[in-house]
């Protein structure tokens, strides 16, 4: 089982994902928000790249009597005129339960929509659900692409960490004795060089994932914007069993993937 | 002091290096070979992207009564018709002493020549001389670009490890107490997310750098080609004080950088 990693949404354009399982990470904060919303009873998340299109999609759903929330950010800030931003803490059960969420974010939705057109199965990963995602990827048994959104075209530490946590959990499942003798090749998983590097990030931060956000450019930016509570939430490793999957054949809006609980 | 990392020669094309110090890594094996040759008395290394051009450059040097060795590889194999390949073990003092070396390799020479046109100072890094390079980068005091060659356009574990070893040594120099309280931001160095990830590779492999080559695609390829002795040599961490620098204003051949001992 081959496990490869792409560090940015841009690099995904060259990825060959056909037939495999892709896992998309935008740990701060889009994919953590999607996982949280679905865990709190959201019916489904429609990810849209463009804000104007997101407004159209939300209006169309509302017109069809589907309860909907419109949410999005650019540069970490809520988009003007949007009722919701991209904080996972906004999507409490009483807010999001039974509703569709239409979401547009700087990096995450782009990576999700790129992956959705290219892979057999697309899962949504974060620190919250890393173990659950690893279990599902092992169950599916196909090659795995870890698709990190990155930040403005650059590698981001937190997305690679999320991907690394999934690798770490997959390795524990493939060979439970592995942690006492960490040799990537010995687990039956064939890790790309980038996946090995991500695994080492997971090993370095597994006892304190929150610390990685202090070492990351985007984590420090969100902290400086007063979003420390979001960071704490997004660092809650393996606290959630939800594995969001991009729906196949369930598109409500052509061209916009709908993410639901698997 | 800002420290950023570029994972492949291709990504370097977007780098803005003006005025800074670039350190180029192609740990398996071009930059390890350059460091070894210069440590063994080589007069200078001319790096050339194209094999035919390398033959021309070598002929021109020989015509000017400059003793010269022609060396190069593609896909890990010696180029047909070339007297030398890209193994550091070929360049013993009695072979390379007092001679110029003209070298063309798959990834390393491309990264070197890209960096040479873009940065104030370009150093050549490897595991062999990581500490010496870190000392020189700290002495120069300018922003640092860690320019990894990568393998065929992909991230390679060994180049990121080499870069990480330089980060680790720079952090020890910036704050000798740092290792007991590893917080990248506390050292006075401003590390990019990728530089932080490389630092964690260095921490993971510092007691056994050779093991990283077993976890790397290119390392395993060279091993399967019978080049285990090269791998052992290239893993000799901090055994060499030579800091190769791309010569400024010393070009023998227009357009071809000449690398000398600093």
Largest sheet of chain A: 6 strands, mixed
Low-pLDDT segments, ≥5 res of chain A: none
Label the overall shape of chain A.
globular
Q: Give the domain tally of chain A.
A: 1
Largest interface comes to: A-B, 25 and 24 residues
**Please, what is the CATH homologous superfamily of chain A?**
ComB-like
Oligomer: homodimer
- The structural class of chain A is alpha/beta
CATH class of chain A: Alpha Beta
Number of strands of chain A: 11
Order of helices and strands of chain A: EHEHEHEEHEHEHEHEHHHHEE
Please name the CATH topology of chain A.
Answer: putative 2-phosphosulfolactate phosphatase
Compute the number of helices of chain A.
Answer: 11
Helix residue percentage of chain A: 25-40%
In what order do the strands lie side by side in the largest sheet of chain A? 5-4-6-3-11-10
C-alpha termini separation of chain A: 22 Å
Describe the structure.
Chains A, B: It catalyses: (2R)-O-phospho-3-sulfolactate + H2O = (2R)-3-sulfolactate + phosphate. Chains A, B: Keywords: Hydrolase, Magnesium. Chains A, B: Its cofactor is Mg(2+). Chains A, B: Pfam families: 2-ph_phosp (PF04029). Two copies of one chain form a homodimer. The first copy, chain A, has 262 residues and is of the alpha/beta class. Chain A has a single domain (2-261), classed as Alpha-Beta Complex (putative 2-phosphosulfolactate phosphatase), CATH 3.90.1560. Chain A is built from eleven helices and eleven strands. In chain A, the strands form two sheets. In chain A, strands 5-4-6-3-11-10 form a six-stranded mixed sheet, sandwiched between helices. In chain A, strand 4 and strand 5 form a beta hairpin. In chain A, helix 6 (130-140) crosses helix 7 (157-174) and helix 7 (157-174) packs across helix 8. Chain A is globular and about 55 Å long. Chain A binds chain B through residues 7, 151, 154-157, 160, 183-185, 191-194, 196-197, 200-201, 203-204, 214-218, and chain B through 7, 151, 154-157, 160, 183-185, 191-194, 196-197, 200-201, 203-204, 214-217.
